[in-house]
Amino acid sequence: MIPRPEDLKPTPVFNAYWHFAAERLAIYYRRIIGDEFYTNDYILSKFRFTNSYRAADRVSQYLIRNVQYAGDQAPRQVIGRTLLFKFFNKIETWEVLRLDGPKHTGQSAVACLDDLFNVGISVYNPAYIMSSPPYGCERKHQNHIALLMDVMDHAKLEDATSLQNLYERLLAYPGLGKFLAFQFAIDLNYSSAFEFDEADFVIAGPGALDGISKCFADTGGYTAEQIIHGVTEAQWRWFAELGIDFPGLYGRPLQPIDCQNLFCEISKYARKSHPEYPGVAGRTEIKQKYLPHAKPFPQPMFPPRWNLNTDVIPTESSL
Asked: Is residue 210 part of a domain?
């Protein structure tokens, strides 16, 4: 069951959720066209937040362009490249590896990662907390390569029947909890190996749970996942009621994965905008500061089946 807007008791943080979604998307479009003005929002200008759309984030864009659609499109090869990238989730690590498929991901990958580790270079992106899979190796990165080889040896992912089924198959592997299994399922679904509807399934991570607790004084007994689906379905009503012009990602509405991420981001944003709502986590500071990138934005690339016209950017009046 999906809650209706009237079933929930939103707090002022929920209004901020929609303003955040619109302004963070506007920042994204301004950066694409090279506009020197990013935002008047003090919090967004000072601290680092992900994009309103997960697929538009820098690492996701690199994954889609440079890992998934830059090589052999056989499903097995695409799955291997995607998971090799995502286990470390760091562009610099991938550029050292530069491996084109699972046939090269054993000893050669371990040797590359060992070399980085031995000179004190971290091979992991700190965005996700990556625990070491229990494969008996000395170092965490060696265990992740062992996990990758386990996935590729058993070939249990290729014939998944839905986004949820793909998630469940990933969850069955040691070392992948619910949050990571869901995130990896979404990443794999960007590729040509799968064509599942993003709207079908969602898992709320810890940050989203905190954001939901700040956005609603009463959730009416609904689960976090039901709330995310309900918010996704009612997005145009909320934007309209608040008078917000939201163009979407080249016309694409927010999907459950995006609304899940937005709950995580509003959890952080509200630490400064609405500190009177501590949420279930009770955190008060935002760790990461915003640092502008010197490199210009590349042309956006999204899964071709989305049919997004990235040559057309909303006018400044709508931003």
From this structure: yes
User: In the structure encoding, which two tokens stand for residue 21, read together?
Assistant: 């979604």
What is the number of domains present in the chain?
A: 2
CA distance 257 to 248: 14
Q: What is the pTM of this model?
A: 0.93
Per-position pLDDT tens, the chain of length 319:
788 778 899 999 999 999 999 999 999 999 998 887 889 999 999 999 999 999 999 999 999 999 999 989 999 999 999 999 999 999 999 988 875 444 455 678 898 899 899 999 999 988 777 889 999 999 999 999 999 999 998 878 999 999 999 999 999 999 999 999 999 999 999 999 999 999 999 999 999 999 999 999 999 999 999 999 999 999 999 999 999 999 999 999 999 999 999 999 999 999 999 999 999 999 999 988 988 766 777 889 999 999 998 888 776 545 5
Q: Are both 216 and 182 inside the same structural domain?
A: no
Q: Any bridge partners for residue 47, and if so which?
A: 289
Find out whether 249 and 308 touch, Cβ atoms under 8 Å. yes
Is residue 173 situated within a structural domain? yes
Last residue of a domain, one of 131, 165, 191: 191
Q: Which two tokens stand for residue 122?
A: 């971290």
In a domain, residue 219? The reply is yes
